[in-house]
Amino acid sequence: MKASITTARLTSLAIALSAAQSALAGPDDTLVAARDAFRANDLAKLANLGDKLPDNYPLKDYPDYWLAWKALDRNDDAQVQRFLTRVPESLMTERIRNEWVKKLGQREDWTTFAQEWKKLPAEGRDEESTCYGQLLQLRQGQKLDDLDRFLEGKPAPDGCSRLIDMAYARGALSQDWLWRRARLLLAGNFLTQARQLASDTQLPLDNAALSKPSIASAATAGGQEAMLYEAVRKGKADLDGAASMLLRMEKEISPDRAGFGWGQLALLSARKHLAGQALQWFDKADPRQLTSDQWEWWARSALRLEQWTQLDGIIRRMPAAVSAKPAWRYWQARSLKQLGRSAEAAPLFSQASVGHNYYALLSLEELGNSLSASASKTGPNSDDVSRMKADPAIRRSLALLNIAEIYTKPEFRTDAQREWRWAMRGRNDMQLLAAAEIARKENFYDMAIYSAERTKEEHDFSLRYLTPYREVTQKYARQLDIDDAWVYGLIRQESRFITMARSGVGASGLMQLMPATAKWAAKKIGLTHFAVNDIDTNVQLGTWYLRYVLDNLSGNAVMATAAYNAGPGRARNWQADRPLDGTIYAETIPFSETRDYVQKVMANAAYYSSTFGHANISLKNRMGVVPAR
């Protein structure tokens, strides 16, 4: 009996203590607890905690937002509708509506879909919701003209597969188009999607022959596709063997299939820097079936060999959407200049020089202009800043950022970023610069850069190219005799100055060090105990490693930058058997991520150098010449 009384008293005390703690908890504590309840699927607790938040709290609607996500999982349209009706238009309502219209499309509730679809702005639609919107248009008898985007060799979400199926059933797509998509899926090894496409559209793909190509018959379309699939697959390990196989089967398969096969083998060759072979095989390819990626690698193969006449010709043949990219305007202009046709090159350099990216800088230099990183003539005033700070989305973003930092909850920082990006839509230059200044003062550096980069006429390069932690970075750059502008260019690209940044593969801190690299570098410099996310330590280890790869790669900054992202071995493998212009080396890096990384880091370095008042070194000179391997 005594034990029973004691247990009851303890339970009563625990309840009282919990109530007291709840009463003392601030709204941020309550919101963090609400998120935990959301993750635990404790909806009653989530709703209860949401009710406790004061009406003037910037994040008051977040518990209801999370409840709406759970309602979507249950197909509880009534609760979703209540949320969308009660909460003003915001990132939260947009994200819920985007997911809801996909659910409605899946269930073919087209009446409700049509009502909600028109409320969803174009910027808020993802690929699948866009496909359901087009599916509605098709059902209403409207013409669709944007389906060739599915001929890039990528799998598509369910809604897009349904769109393709209905478009074919209604005569908006031909069987030839379906074969092209199926071929691309097979080439990308997306067998399940290729088979599903064939099943949904009655495309006569030979599934048995795909699994066992030796039984494929050239007498059927499906058999020919299986033979082609085997040749392309072989090319990934044995290009010469695949080419011999394709040559033998050319008499048995249709010309469009053979042309597709040569295009695939050409792409594989180009990425391996077998440029001469790639050019020969691209000449045998069917241009109608080339993806954007293949067109670009055709051009890169000519560039790698500095075949300027051929490069100009390839760019002229590219689809307009590809040739209009700043990269290919710049390279066509370079090819014309190399061919002594400077008058033709100048307008292309002028077109490519618009903006402040890598190609714009290079084009500006070709026109004889130097980099100018001066601030805008008129910046935002205090009223501009006050109005932006009062914006509900900005208030939510900063409140979420505060929680992320105080409670060390990175997921809240992700929400803060989403809110900030949403708040920047449709803003004029002064509003963007005011927002950037707010973010800078809050140490929200990545979003300060995000806002400052979006201006069109008025620019503030001190916000675009922030310099936090200058004392630390400059100290180690000087110790190791490396360009601090280059170090800043790399940090800006790696982490946007987010000290808690952590990549999907585990890289940490300002300089995004992998655990093994950090441990190895620390051992080399005698650090026995270290915290990789400590700002000073991270910069110390990162700059030491950058100096190390620079010294081991002929002192070439372009190669060292590539090595920092993809490893020294790969950076060496990408050298040619002759000295190569650094811009050509960078353009022909096989990894898209590393190619983009190198170009952006080097362009960043040029801007930082101008900001720091260093010697005026052009970006082209910074790119230099990469020595022969």
UniProtKB/TrEMBL annotation:
InterPro entries membership: Lysozyme-like_dom_sf, Lytic_TGlycoase_superhlx_L_sf, Lytic_TGlycosylase_superhlx_L, Lytic_TGlycosylase_superhlx_U, Transglycosylase_SLT_dom_1
Keyword check for Ion transport: no
GO CC, one annotated term: periplasmic space
Domain Lytic transglycosylase superhelical linker: 414-452
Annotated keywords: Hydrolase, Signal
All residue ranges annotated as the Transglycosylase SLT domain in the record: 473-577
UniProt cross-references to Pfam families, sorted A to Z: SLT (PF01464), SLT_L (PF14718)
PANTHER family membership: SOLUBLE LYTIC MUREIN TRANSGLYCOSYLASE (PTHR37423:SF5), SOLUBLE LYTIC MUREIN TRANSGLYCOSYLASE-RELATED (PTHR37423)
Family: Belongs to the transglycosylase Slt family.
Protein name: Peptidoglycan N-acetylmuramoylhydrolase
